[in-house]
Structure prediction request, 266 residues.
Amino acid sequence: MSGVQRLIDRVWPPRWLYASYERQVLRHLDTASLPRHIAVLADGNRRWARMNAPGQPLVAGYRAGAAKLEEFVEWCDEARIPVITLWVLSTDNLSRAGDDELVPLLDVIEKLVSRLAATKRWRVQAVGALDLLPGGMAEALLAASESTADVDGMHVNVAVAYGGRHELRDAVRSLLAARAAEGATLDEVAGNLEIDEISAHLYTKGQPDPDLIIRTSGEQRLSGFLLWQSAHSEYYFCEALWPDFRRVDFVRALRSYAQRERRFGR
Prediction:
């Protein structure tokens, strides 16, 4: 795509026209039909950096993505969504990325969580295998989470060093440790284990499962995100790279979800 075409795409249609369309769609949505929990795979930050900031470090894309995440939180709050989960770093990303890419990314994530918590508007919770993070960062994320523990607002999960298999492993470990502390034997645990017991040890314990999962950048796969919780989730895939994800795209995702008939496996 030429530079001229990209410029045209950015200024047309004009913002006021999109705003009018967004208001019209939202006005016709039944609030009872909106999801209680929206999760997002904010994919495409590196590709966005290569296309929009050539020659600059990839952190330019991560910063643009973080800014978009803050906008997304505002959109969800305006739509009165009770719970959202933002996946910002996978365990795979953590193990594959070199220090020259990973260190700036971790800095962007830490600042994002701190800014969200500093508003005191939302209950911010870092979820994931935080023990895999550098000690100072893990402490900062936990401190930010604790500082909003009593906030009565939208619950914002920030999935950092998150992997679905890691979560299930940690849930089983936690469950076994809890039952062992009660004096149960391994045979007793195996013979009486119920599904709800595992749910009670997930990173998102006590929260509703995601009703809607949004993934950007044209990718159409789960990538291990919320493996347990997503059994009956609806998916919305968007071609836009995450920093280019617009409020109108969010509104269309809500409309698409509201129009679906959820069967929950029945």
